[in-house]
Specification:
single chain; about 280 residues; alpha+beta; 2 domains; 6-stranded antiparallel β-sheet; elongated
């Protein structure tokens, strides 16, 4: 049964969010394949902001599960709107999976860092998403601790880690109830994109090691490059054709310029991408 993280608050607001885009020059390349596009979202969503920063309130990630002087992890923040609700995505890429696991709940703290005075230990919510997953629902907080907040504030947050990635999805509204089902739907969509990112990370590290024939390696890499270009634009049907072309060449070279061990490894990455694309479409 899913439990909630309890956080004592006196006042909560949409901290760190701006309606004005502040797009920085770069962010970790591993996040390029997790960026949310409008094609990933249900009908009715509108583009918002995209920003990248080392600031813990902007990126939302710290290197361990503490507040204070910890080194922030550079990350990407995106915002979208739908009706009266503002939706925020924070994406982070950590040096290790353990740091990502520890970083998942810190995003909930930094999301409202100016307004949190103290907290009791939160309850681990289980493996609903990724490796670790936490929820926070403003409306579950004791009334007497938020009596300074005026009128119908609504805010729900879901944060999880998967591998070296961490994600926060939050919904904020002054009047409209946040749909828990939609919150989880958006989180699942982001988790699926992380599956693709992890597979592409695997290709980056293993393709040069596993394929010794330069011409075959370059041909396979070219197909991955075309796939990535279309995938990042949200052109998933075209990207599916691209990854299938990669698989076809891999099959043709199996036992020739691609060893059986290399084939099994690279084919597994490709199969993960195919499954994820079908889920995204």
């Amino acid at each position: 049964m899913r439990k909630k993280i309890l956080i004592f608050v006196f006042c909560v607001a949409l901290s760190g969010f701006s309606i004005y885009p502040t797009i920085a020059s770069s962010f970790p390349k591993e996040l390029e394949n997790v960026v949310i596009t409008l094609s990933d979202l249900p009908a009715g969503f509108h583009s918002g902001v995209q920003s990248t920063t080392n600031d813990s309130r902007g990126a939302g990630w710290l290197t361990n599960n503490h507040r204070g002087t910890d080194t922030p992890i550079q990350g990407l923040r995106q915002g979208f709107s739908c009706g009266a609700i503002t939706w925020s995505f924070k994406l982070g890429f950590f040096p290790s999976s353990q740091q990502a696991r520890e970083g998942a709940p810190t995003a909930i703290l930094t999301e409202s860092t100016l307004y949190i005075n103290k907290r009791v230990p939160g309850s681990f919510s289980g493996n609903s998403f990724g490796d670790t997953c936490f929820y926070w629902d403003f409306n579950l907080e004791p009334f007497e601790l938020r009596q300074s907040v005026s009128g119908g504030l609504r805010k729900k947050i879901l944060s999880f880690s998967k591998g070296r990635y961490a994600v926060l999805v939050s919904g904020f509204s002054q009047s409209e109830e946040i749909d828990q089902g939609l919150l989880e739907q958006l989180a699942k969509k982001t988790e699926t994109k992380i599956d693709v990112a992890i597979a592409l990370d695997g290709f980056d590290s293993q393709l040069p090691l596993q394929i010794q024939h330069q011409g075959i390696r370059q041909s396979l890499q070219a197909k991955l490059d075309v796939f990535t270009k279309n995938y990042q634009k949200g052109k998933y049907k075209t990207a599916l054709n691209n990854i299938n072309a990669f698989i076809n060449e891999l099959n043709a070279q199996r036992g020739k310029h691609v060893s059986e061990s290399a084939y099994q490894m690279l084919k597994a990455y490709a199969d993960t991408i195919v499954l994820s694309l079908n889920a995204l479409m």
